[in-house]
Amino acid sequence: MGVRTEDAEGSGIALGRDLGVYLVRTPDMPDQIPVSNGVPKVEIHSVRPARRIASNGQQTTDLVIEMVQRYVETDPVTKEHTTYRGGCTVLIDLEQERIRYAIRRRVDNVNRIAQMKAFMASGSDGSSPYFLADAYNEPFAMLHRGF
Questions:
Q1: Cα–Cα–Cα angle for 111, 32, 67, rounded to 5 degrees
Q2: Buried b (16+ CB within 10 A) or exposed e, 62-71
Q3: pLDDT grade, residue 22 (50/70/90)?
Q4: CA 141, CA 131: separation in Å to the nearest integer?
Q5: Which of 55, 73, 52 is nearest to 63 (CA)?
Q6: H or E element: which one contains 38?
Q7: How many Cβ atoms are within 10 Å of 86's Cβ, its own excluded?
Q8: What digits encode the pLDDT tens for the residues 39-72?
Q9: Most CB within 10 Å of its CB: which of 37, 75, 125, 131?
């Protein structure tokens, strides 16, 4: 017996809301979330097993899933795109088929985005050596900027 589309979509909405990423398009989803064929894009960076010893002394296996989603904002004046990222790491108990633990950073958290903007703006006044690193070809900054 298969899963009905309505059930899968409802589960995707609820799961996405709890995990901080959009798995299906919802009316409250920001336009800044990239979509493909009407479905929000989510990057799955890792799916792997994690073995541990449970409280009863037995070995158990969890499934670890790492998801990342982009939030792309366009400056109305310069038309320059700025990408912010959010996502989650989920540990799923394979024996009980439930999420055991989740760590999340909501992709559309306006407070977090505002803090990131303020941080980036603070470096534009020249007071931070990290933001001057391009002028000196500093390798550490190049590594973290993807050069």
A1: 80
A2: bbebebbbbb
A3: confident
A4: 8
A5: 52
A6: none
A7: 22
A8: 999 999 999 999 989 889 999 999 999 999 999 9
A9: 131
